[in-house]
Structures are given as C-alpha cells and as structure tokens.
Amino acid sequence: MVALPEDRETMEERLVEEILRLKEERDAVILAHNYQIPAVQDVADLVGDSLELARAATAYDAEVIIFCGVDFMAQTAAILSPEKRVVLPAGDACCPMAAMVTAGEVRVLRERFPDAAVVSYVNTSAEVKAESDICCTSANAVTVVESLEAERILFVPDRNLARYVARFTTKEVMPWDGFCYVHDRFTPENVQDARRLHPEAEVLVHPECRPEVIDLADSVQSTSGMVRHACASTARSFIIGTEVGIIHQMQKKCPDKEFYPLSGRAVCINMKKTDLTMVRDSLVTLEPRVTVPADVADRARTAIERMLAVR
Ligand code: 13P
Ligand code: SF4
Question: Which ligand has the shortest distance to the CA of 267?
C-alpha cells in the first residue's frame, strides 16, 4: 500500500508536540513578536511587543531563549541575559529600518550636537545602542524622552516615531531619516477608504506611521498596546494600522470583535520568515545562536537598562 503524505494539520500537530517536548528537554522558553505567523504565536510562551519581549528576556528562568522575531530583538535579549543561549530560528530575519543608521553616523551626530542626548529606538543594531544614552520602544518613547535632562534629543532611526514623540514634549526632537517600509506606506487615503467601508470601526495605528496617518487615527499604540486597547474598548470593530500578523492576537484575545487591516499590503517579510519547522530545528541544534561582542554588549546594556528603569 502506498503511504499517503500527512495532511497539513497532522504535520503541524506533530511539530507542535515535538517542540513542546524539546522545549522541556532544553530548558527553553519561546518568545514571539506579535507579527509572527499564527502557528508560531500559538506555540510561544509569550507573544508581545518589543518592550514586553525585552523584559521577558530577563524574567524567564530558562537556559535557552528561542526568539521568534527579528535580529535586533534577539540581540537585545542576548545583551540583557548573556548567561542564556539566545537562538533566532530564522537567522537572517532582520529589520531594514535598523540598518538605516550606523554607529559611525551616531558618533558624527554627537560631535555636531554635543549638548544633545541620543535616544535610539530598539530597532537598531547593538553597535548603535552602544553609542546611545538610552533606548526606547514604541510603548515608552514619550516617557523615555521626558525622563531625560537634555533639552535636545537626537532620535534614531525612525523619523515617524520621532515626530510622534515631538507632539508630547517641549524638548527639541531631531529625527534621523529612517523609516519602516511597512508603516511608512500607509496613506491618509487608506484610512479614509477603510472608514468608508467600516464606519463604526475605531482606527488604531502604530507610531511608526506617517504624521498625516496618525492625525486621522483614534488611537496610537505599540503593538501590544493596540491589542489591549481593542479588548478594553466599547467599540465592536477596528481598523488595524500595523503589520497584519497582529490580527491573530486580537482575534484570540477578543473573539467577539471584528478586525480589518488598514492595508492588506502591510506585511513585514522578515517577521514572516520563521515557521514551526525552524522552531523545532532550532530546539534540536540550538542554532543559529545570536551573540554580541562583550565590549559592545556592555555599553548597549547600559542604554537598554536605563530604558527598562523608566516607568
Ligand atoms: P512594537 O514594539 O510596538 O511591537 O513594534 C515593533 C516593530 O518592529 C514595529 O514595526
Ligand atoms: Fe522593522 Fe518594520 Fe518589520 Fe517592524 S515591521 S521589524 S520596523 S521592517
């Protein structure tokens, strides 16, 4: 008799079983960003935004962290927990925005503006963090900037997040010219069209969106902030102005509500690179491991820990 190939569902169930068994054997924890594919989100111990995932890196008492996200997130975990083995199953998953500013460019900025504080978004390389006074995420950017004594802020690399922060502070925020291609291409027309189609829906957007899109939104939040907002709101439906993967978390956490993407094109290719087979393989081999050279990590840790201390 010819053996039939396993159907997708059975294959997925088998992979999940293997992952759960290996996770125990390896003393591993699986962290996943809100943009990961649904199957990866569902097998994770924690699904969250960049800030929650950074905090989780130290909070979990595990020997291994399987980081389902992009490289700067795994590097942050490795910097904060050098005693743990941090593994990025899709080893080439990166954030193009993080590559838009280099450590050398930050050093030049510092020379030109010696009185300014450098705030780097966590979507940066470890080398850029090492040159920064403090890091921030989309969840705490305003609070971080407000916590500083300096009146002038060099904000790298996201120009849109920098402009968003500038709305809430009297400090001078000088944006670097980086951007996220997923968020920067939402347009005011996207919002107007979505509102016409779903007039009852609330519009939630990420602060990486352009100012003219933010102007039209009902709420601006980090990814996990959007999930919490949707669950707490009295509205029944939402237009989601961020990467589409987050809709899985929203549907899971508030199954009785409706979610519509602001644009079906809002897909971060790098966030979609990780699948269950890669997660399983990374638990078998504990590779690809993410490491940061100690001298860079020590300086970057200071900037990240300063951020984590801001409440
Ligand atoms: P959050 O920290 O809000 O999850 O954002 C991360 C990110 O990469 C957004 O594009
Ligand atoms: Fe980077 Fe944008 Fe992808 Fe977030 S969505 S990881 S900022 S490219």
Answer: 2
What pLDDT digit, counting tens, does each position of 201-253 carry?
999 999 999 999 999 999 999 999 999 999 999 999 999 999 999 999 999 99
Q: Which ligand is nearest to the CA of 95?
A: 2
For the CA of 182, the nearest atom of ligand 1 = 10
How far, in Å, from the CA of 203 to the mean position of ligand 1? 17
- Domain 8-92+272-291 grouped into CATH 3.40.50.10800: yes
Domain boundaries, the chain: 8-92+272-291, 98-180+295-309, 186-265
Q: Distance of CA 11 to CAs 6, 15, 98, 248, 285, Å? A: 6, 6, 35, 21, 20
Fold type of domain 98-180+295-309: Rossmann fold (3.40.50)
Instruction: Identify the residue whose C-alpha is closest to ligand 2 atom 3.
Output: 268
Residue nearest to atom 7 of ligand 1 (CA): 50
Tens of pLDDT along 255-289? 999 999 999 999 999 999 999 999 999 999 999 99
